[in-house]
Amino acid sequence: MPKLNVQPISNAGIDQDVDELVNTILAGEGSDSDGSISAYQWTQTAGTIVVIENSTNASASFISPSTIEEL
């Protein structure tokens, strides 16, 4: 009988409030009770679009967007 894969546990870290136009670090961690973490994937789910650097690593970053509206 094949062994069932137990879903890994992930933690994206605490919520952050950041200033505009600064490099923001995302530091995640995870554990897998029946193996090891084979991949990471950071994705943005809301807000002004940013480019996430190193989105397939446990630690990623982005430059926070400007909050000034252009006329």
Topology of this protein?
Blueprint: E1 9-11, E2 23-27, E3 29-31, E4 59-63
Antiparallel strand pairs: 1-3, 2-4
Helix and strand element order: EEEE
The class by helix and strand makeup works out as mainly beta
Annotation, overall tally of beta strands = 4
Distance between the termini: 64 Å
Radius of gyration (Å): 16 Å
Q: Based on CA inertia axes, which overall geometry fits?
A: elongated
- Biggest sheet, in brief? 2 strands, antiparallel
Instruction: Tell me the strand order in the biggest sheet.
Output: 1-3
Count of helices? 0
Overall description:
There is one protein chain. This protein is mostly beta strands and 71 residues long. It contains no helices and 4 strands. It has a two-stranded antiparallel ribbon with strand order 1-3. The radius of gyration is 16 Å and the shape is elongated. The model has no long low-confidence stretch (mean pLDDT 89).
